[in-house]
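User: Show me sequence and structure for the first protein, then do the same for the second.

Assistant: Starting with the first protein.
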Amino acid sequence: MEPIYLDYNATTPIDKEVSQSIIPFLESLFGNPSSSHSFGIKAKLAVEEARSEISKLIGCDIDEIIFTSGGSEANNLAIKGVAYAHQAKGRHLITSKIEHPAVLEVYKFLQKQGWSISLIGVGRDGIINLTELEAAIRPDTVLISVMHSNNETGTLQPIREICEIAHAHDILVHSDAAQSIGKERVDVRELGVDLLSVAGHKFYAPKGIGALYIRRGVTLEKLIHGADHERNLRAGTENVPEIVGLGRAARIVRQGLEEHRTHMRLLRDRLSTLLLGAGLEVRVNGSEEQRLVNTLSVSFHGVEANTLLSELSGIAASAGAACHSGDVKMSHVLEAMGIEPEWAMGTIRLSTGRLLTIEEVELAANQIIEAVRRLQGKPVERKAEDTSTIKLTHYTHGLGCACKLRPQMLEQVLKGIPIYDCPSLLVGPETSDDAAVYKLTDEMALVETLDFFTPIADDPYRFGQIAAANALSDIYAMGAKPLFALNIAAFPSQRLPASVLADILRGASDKAAEAGIPIVGGHTVDDTEPKFGLAVTGLVHPDKILTNSGAKVGDLLILTKPIGSGIIATAGKQGAVSDEQMTLCLDNMATLNREAAEVMMAYDVNGCTDVTGFGLLGHLKEMVEGAGLAVELFANDVPVLPGVQSLAQAGFIPGGTKDNLSFVESITHFNADLPLIMKYILADAQTSGGLLISLPEASARDLLSDLKKRAIPAAIVGKITTESEGYRIVVK
C-alpha cells in the first residue's frame, strides 16, 4: 500500500491531462522551435501557446514570460540578472531571512562577489517586518527579493506593500512564487512586482521546467550565453515537451483554481482540527490567516521530527527541521521566527493537494496522533501487533555507529577530563583505543570495553547480533580473548512491544555464544528510541597487548572487512537498497572478527584497531598520530561493499560520515583525481567493521594469504611511513 502523500509543497504528481498533452511532443512533434520548416513551426506554436497560458495565469503580457529549467534558474536569472545589469547604480541587495535556498544561496554568491546584502527579519507569525525593510534601503539598493509564500509555513508575504515601498525608492522587486501558483491567485499587475518566478512541479507540471516574468522595461544581464532564444535572455533550444506541459498545467489551474483551493483548505483544516484536538503538546507555526490554503506547519513539543516521520511509514511528509542524511539542525525559517528549539525540532510540514481525500487525511491524522503520543510518553492503548512488520531503523534518527558524537566534539570534551594515575592501568583514556587494559599479574591483564548504538538493522534479532559483534570486536582488536559480557539497553516501551527487546537480547546472546562467552546480565532504561550494546570483559597477556599506536615505519596495513556499511544503512532506511545488497551488508556486520584475530595472533603484529564509527580515515588518523608516523592509503585497494559507490553518488551519505571527513581533512592529502564520493566512502561511519592490522611487510603477505584461506575478504590497503609536508595521511 502506497503511503498517504502529504508533501505537495515538495512536489506534485503530473496531472494526467498534462502528461497526455506532452506525449505527442515526445513522439511525432519533435521539431526544433527555431527551425523554419513545418516541424519547427508546429513546435514554435506549441511553445507560444504555453507562454500565453502562463501569461494569462499570472496576469501579464505574452512577451513578459521567458521559460527556464525551473524555479531555481528563474531566481538566479532574476537576482543575478538585475545585480549585474544595474551594478553601475548600486551593489546593495535586500532579501528576507526566511527565503528558500534558491534565493538565499544566490545572495550569498553575490556577497562573495562584492555585493552588500541585507537580510530582513520576520515576526513570530513569519511575516516580514516592513519597518525593518524600509530602514534597510540605501541609495545604492537595486533589488528587493521576497517570496510570495513560504515553503515551510505557508505564510503569505505583503508583496504589494513591499513593492510600494521599493518603487518609491526606484528599486526593483522580485518575488519567488513557486509555492503560490496553483494554491493562491497570483496577479503580477495587482502585486506590482517587476520579476516573478514560477516552478512547474509545484502545480502538477513536470519537474525541470519553470518560467520568469520580467516586466517590460526591466533590463537583465543574461546568465546562459549562446543563441538568442527567449528574448536573448536564455540561450538553449527550448524544452518543448515540458513547456507544453507547463502551459497545460497553467490552464488547468486558471480554470479550476477556486475549486482546488476549497478542496485543499477543507483537507488542511480537517487535519489541523484533528491534531490540535487530540490533547497533544502541539501548536501551529506562522500566521493562521495569511497562509497558503494547503499548508500546515505543526510542532510537537519534545519530539524529534525525523524520528516521528521514520515511524510514520504510511505517510509521506517533510520535517520542519532540516535533516540531510543524518545531519539534523533547526530550520532557518523557524529560527528566524523565534520558535524555541524544543518546539522547532519537532516540526513537520503537512501539505494537501488536489488528489488527496478526506478519508486519507483522517487516517493520516490518527497515525500521527498515535505516534506523537508514544514519543511524548503519553498512555497509548497498545494493539496486538505483528512484530514481523516492524522496521527498527524507523524508530531512531541515527543508524548504528554513525550516530556517535562528532569526533571533533568528543576530542574537545575529553581534553577537559583529568586522567587518574593508576600504575596497573596499561591502556587507558590517554590513548584512542576502544578498550582499557588493567594488569592483574605478570601473566594476566583484564581488557574492558563498552559499545552501544541505535539500530543499524530493521530486524531486532539482527540488530542484537550486530551490536554484539561490534562490541566483541574491541576485545579482538587488543589481541585479547573475551570472557563474558553485560547487556546495556535503552528501550521505548511506549513505542515498541517488549517482544522486540526480547529478540534483540536473543540475537546478542546467540552471537556471544558463537564467540564462546555468556552474557551474564546488564542494565536497561526507558528511552524515546531503542539503543543496545554490550560491555565485554576479556583477558590478555600484558606482553601481548595490541594498541592502535604500535605501528612502525615500513609496516603494511591489512583490512579484514569491506567498508561502506554506513552508506548502505542510510540508503536502506529510505528503501533504496535491494534485499540482496542489504543482506550482504548485514552479514558483513554480524560476522565476528574472532577468526581474523586468531589468525593475526600467529604473526608479529605491531598495531591493531577495528574500523567503526570514525571510518577508515578516522581510525588511520588515531593510528598514525598515536605512533607519531604517517600512512599512505591505497584507495583503489580498499575493499568496498557492492553498490556503495552508486548509493554515495545518489547522495546517501550519513551525517557522521561527513563529520569524519571534516575531522581528517587538515592532515590528509588526497590524490588530485580522487573523487569526492571516494573520500566519503573512505570516511564512512562503519558499524562492526573489520580489523585494521599493522605488521612488517615481510610477514604481511603471509598473513593476507592465511586470512584468505579462511575466506576472510582481507586486503592490503596501506603502508606506514614518516610524516611528509605536514600530512599524516596521504591517499593515493
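Switching to the second protein now.
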Amino acid sequence: MLDFASDAFDLGWPCVCEHLPNSIFRLLSVYCADTIDCRLASNQVKQIIAPARFIHLGCSAHFFNQMERKKTIMTGRLIRVAVALYLVAWLTLGMPAYAQGQAQQGSQTSGQTSSSAQTPSSIPYPNLLQGEDYTQGKRSFPNIFAPYTRRFVPQPDLTNTPTIYGLIHDGKLELGLQDAIALDLQNDLNITVAEYTPWIDQTQVMNAEGGGTPLGQFVIGGGGGGTFDPVVFAGTTIADSVTPVNDLLTSGISTTTPNFFAIQTHATQINMGYSQELHTGTTFTAMLDSTRSSVPPIEEAFFNPAVQSTLSLSIQQPLLKGFGLLPNIRFILEAKNTSKIGKLQFEEAVITEVTQAETQYWILVADRQAVDVAKQTLAVSQRLYQDDVRQLQIGTLAHLDVVTAESEIASDNQALIAAQTTALQQETVVLNLITKDPMDSRLQGVEIVPTTPLDQLSEVPNITLPDAVKEAWTNRPELKADQLTLDNDRIEVKATRNSLLPSLTLSGNYSSTGLAGVATNSVFTPNGTASPILAEPIVDQNGNPVLSGGVPTFVGNPNGTVATSTTQNGVGTAYSDVFHNRFPTYEAGLSLSLPLRNRSAQAANAEAQLTEREQQVSLQRDKNTIVVGVRQALTALQQDAAQVVATVKATQLAQETYDDEVKKFDLGASTTYNVVLQSRDLNAAKLNELQAKTNLAAALVSFNQALGRTLSANNISIADNMQMPIDFTPVAPLIPGTINGQLADPNVFGIRANQ
C-alpha cells in the first residue's frame, strides 16, 4: 500500500489529494480530537498531502500534455480511493493505541490524585518521656529493705512498633505526612537515644538531694555534698581481757588473790545512733551507748558487774564558710537545672528529627513525582520516534531525524532510571527514619507511597522579622538551656564566694549518764567492845602519847557483827538516770580555721566568674545565631513562595505555548519535532514547579524549626513527670498551648517567663 501511494505521487497526478484534506481532517477529529497523538497523525496526513499539492502546482501542464483527460480522472479517482483506504486503516490501527495510552495515563494520574488526598493520621503520637520518675528513690516504708535493692531499668525496645504494619496494603506502605511524623516519634533511634539524657539527669537530682556531689566530677571550693539522707547506725562489741599491772593502786586489783598483779575484765557494749546534715549546713548527731562490765570481786567497786548508759547529742553549725542554704544545696539547684536542660536538649532533638522527617518526606514526594514527569517525557519521545519511523517509511522524513529521536529516547530513558534510583534511595532514607529495624522481613520489598501531596501545603505565614525573632527567642529550647546554664554558673559564683571565707564552727554537746549494776552492802553492828591498835597511839599536838593512868592510850576497832546484802539493778535503772538527767554534761565551743593564702578557694571563685562571663557571651552569640537563622528562614520562605508563583506562571505560559504550537501544527505551520520540543519544555516547567513547591515545603519546615514552632505546629508534647498523661487522638487534636483541652501552664519546664 505504501509503495502504491509512493508510485502515485511519483507519477505527479495533480488531483490525487485535491479533495483529501478536509475529509481526512474530519476523520481525524472523529477518532481522537484534542490528543497529542491525533494531532501528530493529522500532521502526517498533511505531510502526505503536501507533495501531491506540490506536484499539482509544478507539473500540471506537463501531465495534461501526456495523458488524456478521462483516463487521468479515472486513474486519479482510483488512487484517491486507495490512499483514503490506506489512511483510514492506518488511523484505525494507530490512533486508538495512542488514545488508549493517553486514557491509561490519564486514569493513572486521576488515580494518584484521588489516592493522594491527605487523611488524618491514624497513628496517635506517643507521649514522649512518659515513664518512671528517676528523681525519686525507693523509700524504707513499709519495706525497710527497699532502699538497699537495685532499681529496675527496662531494656530498650528495638523492634518496630506494630502501627507501621497497619499501613501496608498490597505491598505498599501508604504513608501520610502525619503518619510519618508519628512513626518517626515512635521508632527514630536518635529520639530514643536522646530520651535517656533527661532520665540520667534525673538520677543526678536524686544523687544531689541525697547529699552527693555530681558523679564523676571533682568539686573545688568546698560546699555542698554531705549526708542529707538520715543515717541510723548501731553496733555491738564483746571484750574479755586479762591485763598485767605494776601498780597496786590501780582500781580493780584484788590483793587477796594469788594473781594480784593482773586485771581480768569482761565488757559488752551496744550503741546506736542517728546522724544527718541539714540544708543549712547544720550537722546533728544523737547516740545512745550502753556498756556492761565486770571485774573480779574487789572492795573498791560500787557495782560489779556494772551497767553504764550514756545519751549524747552534738550539733555543729558553720558561721562563715558553709553558712546558709546556697552553699549547701548548690548541687541540688544545679542538678535540677541540669535536668531541665536535659529535657530541653531532648526537645531540641525531637524538633531536629521531626524536621528531618518532614523534609525527607517532601523530598520523597518530589522524587516520585519527578519519576512521573520523566515517564511522561519518555512517552513523548517514544511517540516522536514512532511517528518519525512511519514518516521515514513513507519517504517524507530523513533518516537523521529518526536517529535523533532514538537518541532522545535513550537520553530520556537514562533520566528516568536516574529519577527512579533517586526515589528508591529516598525511600530507604525515609524507611530508616520511621523504623527501628529496617531489615524486618515484613518490610522487605515494600514500596513507600506518600499520600500527602505538595498541593496541601500550609499558607505562608505573614510575620515581620522583629516579631519572628522575638518569638524564636521565646520558644527556642537552646536559649532556655543557655539561660539555665547561666543560672548554674551564677550559683557557682555565689557558692565559691562563700568558700573564700574562713571556717568558723559553733559546736554544742550534751550528754547524760546513768550507772547501775550489782551492789554489795555490809552492815556492822558493834557489841560495845573494841580491840586496840597498838601501832596507832593517840598523841597530843606535840606528838607525845596521851597517857591515861600513866599508860598510853591506843586507837581501837570496835568489835561486833557484820551483815552483808546484795542489790541488783540493770539497764533500766541506768536509762532512768539518763532520761531524768541525773548526771548531765554541757559543752559549747568555737573552732576557727584560717587559711593564710587560700589559693584553692580563690582559684575556684575566679574560675566560676570566668565561666559565668563565658556563658553570658555564649548566650548572646546564640541569640545572634538565631537572628541569622530566622532571617535566612524567613527570606528563604518568602523567596520560595515567590518562586512557586513564578514557576506556576511559567508552567501556565509553557502550557499556552504548547497549545499554540499544537494549533499551528493543526494548520500545517509547524512540525512534529517542534510540538515535541514544546511538550518537553512544558514537562521541564512542571518539573521546575515541582521543585519550587518542594523547596517551599522544606522552607516551611525550616521556618517552624527556626521559630521553635515545630512541636506546637504538629501537636507534639514533651511529658513531664508531674503531668497527667495526654490523650493524643486524631478525632480531637490538641490545640497548641492546651493540654486535654485546658490552657497549659506557660512555665512547662519551670523556667521564668522573662528568660
